[in-house]
Design goal:
By secondary structure, the protein is an alpha/beta fold. The protein has eleven helices and nine strands.
Length: 295
């Protein structure tokens, strides 16, 4: 970070802000995975876990949507693409608003980690075709289903024509990912400003609001020197609860009340970075590698 090329955002914004509702579908009786149990409460069915998350699609999504509409937010929805078939009204609501749809896999109970190379390659084809069929959109990026990966994931994503990956939580700026062909970058996502770990660790809404404001304040100050990215990761079954929705409204008021904020989609951030900064960052990475090799 200390000697990187400077990033500039449109309108001289200090922070590129993207807001990522995670619109998910969990299966009541998911297929057995050899490496990971989708429902930790056994034996299946885990009615409590399933019903908690099902609340998001029945109720929470619509409550969140009202708050997002009031603030004219164009989201990047991290979407289990089966949502378009199981909840077509939700799919239509997102498409009608021009939201970007980022793949979050097909189901959030089927992971990449146990797939063979051919199976994972077929997975990307399925994601691309499903999104195209339902919305006409070209798929640009992915947050892995339940943030699962294989060692082949970046190369296979780039091979399939995707341009950004959100699983890497390691920076406040986009970073090139070294792949065999094409271009792939990390667009910063967040496990800290993510309502799942915050609320499931029993922090209250006021804690989450304070965390978001504090993170934004620091990034906004640092962004005067070089642009930063801030992601806000939300889940309708959590942030869409009646006792939390006022917290979302307070967050949106605060973030969007600052002048030098570019409220963008993840693919807009990726495209701007690739067009204006990618080559400089690759050269910077090569210089770092040269220093490391020399040592």
């Amino acid at each position: 970070m200390v000697d990187r090329p400077r990033i500039t955002w449109p309108g001289n914004a200090r922070v590129a802000l993207w807001i990522a509702p995670n619109v998910e579908h969990y299966e009541y009786l998911p297929p057995r995975d050899p490496q990971r149990n989708p429902w930790p409460r056994s034996p299946h069915p885990d009615v409590q876990g399933y019903a908690h998350r099902d609340y998001g699609n029945r109720v929470g999504f619509w409550r969140m949507l009202e708050a997002l509409d009031q603030h004219q937010v164009r989201c990047t929805a991290s979407t289990n693409l089966a949502v378009f078939e199981h909840y077509p009204d939700i799919g239509k609501a997102m498409a009608d608003r021009g939201w970007e749809i980022m793949s979050h896999g097909i189901y959030n109970t089927r992971y990449l980690s146990a797939l063979t190379e051919d199976e994972e390659r077929a997975f990307y084809s399925d994601c691309i075709e499903t999104l195209q069929r339902h919305t006409g959109q070209r798929l640009r990026g992915m947050l892995g289903p339940a943030v699962s990966n294989t060692v082949r994931t970046p190369d296979l994503m780039a091979e399939a024509g995707l341009t950004y990956h959100a699983d890497w939580l390691h920076d406040d700026q986009p970073i090139p990912i070294n792949v065999k062909q094409g271009q792939l970058i990390s667009v910063p996502y967040s496990i800290e400003l993510n309502d799942v770990p915050v609320f499931l660790q029993h922090h209250d809404t006021a804690d989450f609001v304070a965390m978001v404001k504090a993170q934004f304040d620091t990034l906004y100050a640092e962004g005067a020197e070089s642009g930063r990215v801030m992601a806000l990761a939300l889940h309708p079954y959590l942030m869409g609860m009646p006792h939390r929705i006022a917290g979302l409204e307070e967050i949106l008021d605060y973030l969007l009340g600052h002048k030098l904020v570019w409220q963008a989609t993840a693919c807009e951030i990726a495209d701007h970075f690739i067009e204006n900064h990618y080559e400089d960052f690759v050269q910077h990475a090569q210089r770092i590698k040269g220093v490391a090799d020399a040592s």
